Amino acid sequence: MRLVIPLIAGIILSDTIGNTRIKVSLLCALALAAVITTFTTFIFGGRLSRMFGFSLSLSFFIAGMFMYTIFQKRVHVDWPDEARTHAAVLSDYPYERERSYRLELSLFDSVSADIYLYVPKDSAVKALVPGNVILFNGRIESPRSEDGSDFDYARYLYRHGISGTLWVPSDNWRKLDMNVGGFHTRTLVFRRKLLEKYREWGLTGNALAVTAAVSLGSKREIDSGLREVWSTTGASHVLAVSGLHVGIMCAFLYFLLPAALFRRRTMWVRELTVLGIMWAYALLIGLPLSITRSLIMFSMLAFCRVTGRDSQPVNTLSFAALAILTASPESLFDISFQLSFCAVLAIVLFEPGIERLFTPRSAVGRYVWGIIAVSLAAQLGTAPIVMFSFSNFSTYFLLTNIIVIPIMFVVVCLSMVLLMTCWQPAVRGCVVWLLTGLVNLVNGALERIALLPHSSLTVHIDNAWQVWMAYAVIILVSLWLKERRTHRLVQALFCIALSLLASTLQNFAVLT
């Protein structure tokens, strides 16, 4: 935690000040301070041992700024003013929009950048697959935000590695008779083939969309209506391949490889086998951030089990964040990264306290209360980000999770059984029938919940600093409930008052 916090702070500061001379001067000054502090600590030893922690934190802060600066230099490109001919490789399957297709391309030019190419709808686009080489002529422009819109679309694209956009007519592009395929391309093609197999086996409509999402990490088959229902009821997190799916798959693999088959000295073989299978699965579905976080944490827990070491959930989560941000610092601004880590951190910090508030006597009651405790903790961790990014709050999220999580647990298990028994038509047909029935049951329940009064409230958080204030209030109130010290409550009330005062002044400035 002491390492990942300065790393995140460095990335945020680098994104805030942009590529300016101020950043270069600041980086040089901080690097000089880190070198001096490290050298002084090395010379004087124990007398300045506390300086070592400061030097280490400062080094990670500088590393965060430096890595994100490199990313910004790669993404921000000065495009020529005239139209030119470019060659690029298709990075993903075409994304269908209302009036066009969007192609994500990686250029072959001297500037190696990723762009969005928009083309009219025609049959030639549908035949494209990842790895195809596209030749097009047009003028690439830097991303721009729409006038009058509160959403900074240009900044969103830059943070996701997209350097430019353009639209070309059908006559200005064509597919060349060559392919450039890497590992990522092969995984995309493999997932598409599995998706086609799902259709051949009898999965259609919403059953196909939900099964593909929870087993292959592909959400393109989810239509806007189904997506709206799951979002309104607060169940969208279940569709992401994350810790729930990792837990189910690992439990299944441990069942197939019982501990009785291994000696104590060879237990690492069991752990390594399970880890290898899980990481191979994660690579095949494209390494989404949620499952990457889960697998890094699971790998650390497996290492601790084999070596007989104690594991701390917060440190394990921090190590996962440190590993992801070191490899991809721009992931910090990905909404899935933020929601995944904030939800797990809130569960680790708040779920035990919530669960101790009530102790049901029956096993069913304990199971339901466990779901409620986890849901409340996760909602505390993600609500400010959801309000800031989507401006809504799902009122019946507890009811949704009580219904959806047990059923989706079975759906994930059945999707695994489907892949394992696909060679037997009778068993396969039975599994497809069960999957279709369960998914229809879940969708029907969510549609009814979405129709309840005030199922989704529109709550706006306009600025990022209000998100930080909200988290400060949540942490201070939780500390007050735990410590029963009045000053924690006073600090929380002060944060609320400061936030209200700043909002009032901001609204007054707008009106005047």
3D structure, described in words:
The radius of gyration is 25 Å and the shape is globular. It starts with a helix and ends with a helix. Helices cover 64% and strands 9% of the residues. The chain has 18 helices and nine strands. The protein has helices at 4-17, 21-44, 50-75, 123-126, 153-159, 183-201, 205-216, 224-232, 243-256, 267-284, 289-307, 313-327, 335-355, 363-390, 397-420, 425-450, 464-483, 486-511; strands spanning 84-90, 95-96, 100-107, 114-120, 132-138, 162-167, 173-179, 393-394, 456-457. The model has no long low-confidence stretch (mean pLDDT 82). It is α+β, with helices and mostly antiparallel strands. β2 and β3 form a beta hairpin. α13 runs antiparallel to α14. The strands form two sheets. Strands 1, 2, 3, 4, 5, 6 and 7 form a seven-stranded mixed sheet that branches. Strands 8-9 form a two-stranded antiparallel ribbon.
Number of strands: 9
Treating each run of at least 4 consecutive H or I residues as one helix, how many helices? 18
Average pLDDT taken over every residue:
82
Basic shape:
globular
Runs in which pLDDT lies below 50 for 5 or more consecutive residues are none
N-C termini distance: 44 Å
- What is the CA-atom radius of gyration, in angstroms? 25 Å
Q: Name the quaternary structure.
A: single chain
Structural class: alpha+beta
Helix amount: 55-70%
Q: β content, as a range?
A: 5-15%
